[in-house]
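Task 17 of the worksheet. Students: predict the tertiary structure of the chain below and write it out as structure tokens. Keep your answer in the requested format; marks are given for formatting as well as content.
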Amino acid sequence: MPFKTCPLCHYDWQDRKKFLSDPNISLVGYQVNFGDLRAGFFLFTHEIPDCGTSMAIDAGKFTDMHDGPIFKERMEGTEACPGYCLHQTSLKPCPSHCECAYVLDVLQTVKKWPKT
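Model answer:
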């Protein structure tokens, strides 16, 4: 079973590494799910002629890419929260000690993934 299949053109990526390395894949952002952060979605675009579709992948498929603490408290709605996770196209790293910060850290890793 492939890691992801494009819902429009049906192109298959066999594993996460091939998906992230594909120069035709661009990261768009993260759609948060505050009830379960792993159930949020990382959003991508398949940028090839005659496709250009958007794709959502469960954030949980990327959790292992985080190397650092996962904070227990959510800072959303407090003065310590810059609100980056509330804007799905924001790809900024979060400076807050918030449970959501690890997801934005993973986004940085995905964003900087080398394309081949």
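Marker's comment: Strands lie at 4-5, 12-13, 25-31, 41-46, 54-58. The first strand starts at residue 4 and ends at 5.
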